[in-house]
Amino acid sequence: MNLRPVLFTTLVFLSLPASVLPAAENTKPVNFEQEIAPLLSQRCVSCHSPNIKKGELSLATPDDLLNNGFVVPGDPAGSYLLEVVVPADDQPAAMPKSGEPLTKAEVDLLQRWVAEGAVWPKDVVLREASKADRSWWSLQPIAEVAPPEVADAPAEWRENPIDRFVWSQLAEAGLKPNGPADRRTLIRRATYDLTGLPPTPEEVAAFVADDSPDAYPQLIERLLASPRYGERWGRHWLDVIRFGESRGFERNQIITNLWPFRDYVIRSINEDKPFDQFIREHLAGDAIAPNTPDVEIGAAFLVAGPYDDVGNQDPAQAAQIRANTIDEIIRASSEAFLGLTVGCARCHDHKFDAITQRDYYALYATFAGVKHGERAVATKGQRTQRDKQLKDLQEQQKQLTSQQTDITNFALARGEAKQEHYDKIWSRPAISRQSTEERFAPVTAKLVRLEVEGQERNPNSNNGYGVDEFEVWTADENSQNVALASAGATAAGESRQAGDFDGAYSAALTIDGKFGARWLAAGPQLTITLAEPQLIDRIVFSSDRPGAVRDNNVANFVSEYKILVSTDGETWTEVANSHDRQPVSDAHRRKRILAAELTEDDQAASKEITQQLDKVNRAISRIPPLPVWWVGNRDAAQGPFHLFIGGSPQRPGETVTPCSLSGLSESAPVYELPADSAESQRRLKLADWIVDPANPLPQRVLANRIWQHHFGAGIVATPNDFGYMGGAPSHPELLEYLAAELVDNDWHLKPLHRQIMLSQAYRQSSEHRADAAKLDGDARLLWRYPPRRLSAEEVRDSVLQIAGKLNLEMGGPGFRLYQYLQDNVATYVPLDEHDASTYRRAVYHHNARAARTDLMTEFDSPDCAFSTPRRDETTTPLQALTMLNHDFTLDMAQFLAERLQQEAGDDPQEQVKRAYALCYGRSPSEAETKSCVALATEHGLPALCRALLNTSELIYLH
């Protein structure tokens, strides 16, 4: 009997045995899609799916059930599937292994289904049931909502639609908002929100004195037009997209040419570039406008995250590293633009959201061609001009090089014809990295010198040549190595420099009697001074003694040398050399032959050519190079692309193609591209799909981010997760309204800033009310303006501005608050002293991963290994200790004292008044003035300034 058709067509069994007939009360046939499919999805598919396949069984389609005999249509007793879900002999059922066992009703349902023929409708594929399906709120089209009528609200709360939404929620909770904030508080709040800097005393005074009705709207316009606006809100966005200027992982090498992307972000926000265009440029700027650096740089977003460049020779591990790299890009993109944790579907269908593993690998196929690295980014005109300038010079270079090659080849040919001659001259064995020995006639020496004339290059090394031990043996029956530190010998030689690693490669390593750690040379000589003159006749040196414990430093080795001795350090005698040893490599052999075979005429001609080449090369070097930026590279990567079972590249599953996310197919347009589509087309199509007005997620996510940075928390408190595990909206209708407003304003951010900041909700005071706090302790419903502490950048920038030292230079390479050291891996040592070159805005700090920066790190500046959509706000003793004692704060206190003396004269009361205006935007009370004058009188004005810079009022915003 052919069983396969039974699984796909409804058959009526007229002669089934009574044992398998449905009970009389269940005469209605089992509905697979309504009864069996949900049961299998909820209880079985989490372990038995194509991408996990525990026990080599998938219950997503009927194939495994049929091919392996797990189900025999019409025969429940013979179906192994039913056997494993039914308890036997007081033993629990074998399946499911996790979760509660199937109920009797569920088992009976499966038995009826099998008895009726195990009907599985064609093309029905099951997936694990998620907590949030396509009906989830964030996946629905943006709803058209009208601001509620709030007849009971004051007139000023009925003007701005935002206020009507907020008032309605407050009224529903039995709450009322605070009254308006005073004008000094309001200008400080608005200035920090839009620029990240405090208002100047003059700006505060002018705003307080201006009682015109448009004073506040004009303030908002001035702040939005300030170049400081892009710096502040650019920092917010750089947090979201995990922008960092080092590679991360073990080596964590610094990236020195990613700063143009940071400048692009700041510039775009200052220009109020439509954010849909901004997103498209992030994903495909190089495809949208090739040879247009100001746009092309946007695609550096793709490679602005951590990058594992350690490398691995094992193909399986290399494939895993590559998969991890693409995964990082998928997570960064989906969280930043969609507010979805697509990365959770790497190994299996998402446990909570309507995201399948196929969705994940559709994005994998989209980004498969993205490679981390740097390349030239320039306009077509720049490239053409440079090519034109180089053309003639490169032709000259080519001709001269060819002439030089001819001379060399003729000399080499003459040498090869004398092979037997050179074999006689080079009679001794070649130099060995493991151990090289030289014997010579006994000679008295106080000093022994290794003079290096050539190196054997190691292709994996940028280090100098290495020597792990150098031995000098006496010429007697009881020969001893007298070149030991323990015997009083010393070693001198120029060592490789590596910052704080100096000493790790000292010449002293060559006489310590141990094999392993090497002296890495930076000069041609190693000189051993013996404790006293000795009669010697042998030396031995090495770089890789057999059995030595290596220090992981790859090194070059000596390929040509002389051994010299001296008794006084003035007169030296050569006692041995390597000139009669066999060459260590073909390159070494060529070098020797050329030295011997080039005639005087050859050498003169070669010298003339070399001089001409140097002249041409200098001319080439003077032509400005094209800018080289860390924007990534691309390869075709045209598939076929596969889903990875369990997330492992070693277990390729079904093929996938670049396409849109299936969970959004009902609320956003659908696309699918062939596997051989162009790499740039794949990214561009994804970008267009993301910002399509019918896609509801980017609008909601972006509107929520804007709201968050004005009120401290988003309407959705989890800005990168709008799924089941994310927070529920505190003001759902308001979020819909803001998202629609964003699109209506062509994705410009400034109109949304205006509307939010002109609302009464934003302008109210932060006064705490115990009765309201009992109902809404976090002020999520906005019965008051939520106060906040300044961010790390705001704290540092404010201190600099108050002290009169803030450098407002924009753009360019960043400054560093650490010393960068590199020795295979990178080390970032915080600077104790910050000089004037570091007095720029903190957004221009060279933001390396895993690099502590005093003050900034203490105040929760995040490590940029991951997206940080909302910063932590901790309170630790280190914050107070750093602000009180770091040289930066002490310097700023001194500078502030000097500023006060310059601007307020020698009157202590005027100095205090000016200090309060600079620090807090207000005048001191009489008691405050008295206390401050007393402190300055007793301990000095810098001590008072230090105290003011450490006050809560300075770093908290109300």
From TrEMBL:
<dbReference type="GO" id="GO:0046872">
    <property type="term" value="F:metal ion binding"/>
</dbReference>
<feature type="signal peptide">
    <location>
        <begin position="1"/>
        <end position="23"/>
    </location>
</feature>
<dbReference type="InterPro" id="IPR009056">
    <property type="entry name" value="Cyt_c-like_dom"/>
</dbReference>
<keyword id="KW-0408">Iron</keyword>
<keyword id="KW-0349">Heme</keyword>
<dbReference type="InterPro" id="IPR011429">
    <property type="entry name" value="Cyt_c_Planctomycete-type"/>
</dbReference>
<dbReference type="Pfam" id="PF07583">
    <property type="entry name" value="PSCyt2"/>
</dbReference>
<dbReference type="Pfam" id="PF00754">
    <property type="entry name" value="F5_F8_type_C"/>
</dbReference>
<keyword id="KW-0732">Signal</keyword>
<dbReference type="Pfam" id="PF07587">
    <property type="entry name" value="PSD1"/>
</dbReference>
<dbReference type="InterPro" id="IPR022655">
    <property type="entry name" value="DUF1553"/>
</dbReference>
<dbReference type="InterPro" id="IPR011444">
    <property type="entry name" value="DUF1549"/>
</dbReference>
<dbReference type="GO" id="GO:0020037">
    <property type="term" value="F:heme binding"/>
</dbReference>
<protein>
    <recommendedName>
        <fullName>Cytochrome c domain-containing protein</fullName>
    </recommendedName>
</protein>
<dbReference type="InterPro" id="IPR036909">
    <property type="entry name" value="Cyt_c-like_dom_sf"/>
</dbReference>
<feature type="domain" description="Cytochrome c">
    <location>
        <begin position="23"/>
        <end position="118"/>
    </location>
</feature>
<dbReference type="InterPro" id="IPR008979">
    <property type="entry name" value="Galactose-bd-like_sf"/>
</dbReference>
<dbReference type="Pfam" id="PF07635">
    <property type="entry name" value="PSCyt1"/>
</dbReference>
<keyword id="KW-0479">Metal-binding</keyword>
<dbReference type="GO" id="GO:0009055">
    <property type="term" value="F:electron transfer activity"/>
</dbReference>
<dbReference type="InterPro" id="IPR000421">
    <property type="entry name" value="FA58C"/>
</dbReference>
